[in-house]
Write a structure and sequence with these properties.
Strand 2 and strand 3 form a beta hairpin. Strands 1, 4, 5, 7, 8, 10 and 11 form a seven-stranded mixed β-sheet that branches. About 0% of the residues lie in helices and about 40% in strands.
């Protein structure tokens, strides 16, 4: 994925949706860049919280309150899940649908650690949940295999809950829908 489109001196350079803003994410061509990280703009003004994410050793319960943040970053506060390349795992999600609505949950993994979720095989439809408080037994889950070619080390997992359809892009809500929530986690890929 080309995350650094060409730009001229003094021009702008709009990067694709990035998974982080840490070291090694800036170009090293010798040019000077003024770069503002492309923050995701989900537009979720009506938060419908993800209340639990279970993947490997991650078992993170979060608030069911609709006054929660639209984006929650657990990459530093939750211990990364160690997962082994080539092995199968289940990702399970719970969420508050705030009445009799159906919410669709999508997960994105940066398997090759190129700081985006744009490559083939990096997104999964987890499933749907309808009419849930987020504290009941309703859940969505998907069985997935860690690619044998995945890059060893820490990488990002993003879970998106979205009203009415699976969110097919990792960095914005689709279809003008403003109901949902996003959570980010760290996954440690081991050989």
């Amino acid at each position: 994925t080309n995350n650094w489109p060409a730009s001229t001196a003094g021009g702008t350079n709009n990067a694709t949706c990035r998974t982080g803003t840490g070291a090694g994410e800036l170009p090293t061509s010798g040019l000077t860049y003024t770069w503002t990280p492309n923050s995701c703009s989900f537009g979720f003004t009506n938060v419908r919280p993800i209340t639990n994410v279970l993947f490997g050793t991650i078992n993170n319960a979060s608030s069911a309150s609709t006054s929660s943040l639209a984006y929650e970053d657990f990459t530093s506060s939750v211990t990364p899940a160690d997962v082994t390349k080539g092995q199968d795992y289940t990702l399970t999600v719970k969420g508050n649908t705030n009445t009799d609505n159906t919410y669709y949950y999508t997960a994105f993994f940066d398997w090759n650690n190129d700081k985006d979720f744009a490559d083939a095989g990096e997104s999964f439809n987890v499933g749907t949940i309808r009419n849930s408080t987020g504290a009941d037994n309703k859940l969505a889950s998907v069985f997935l295999q860690i690619p044998a070619g995945a890059t060893v080390g820490n990488t990002r997992m993003r879970v998106i809950g979205h009203d009415g359809s699976y969110n097919t892009t990792p960095c914005a809500s689709i279809g003008g829908n403003n109901d949902g929530q996003v959570e980010d986690y760290t996954v440690n890929l081991v050989a």
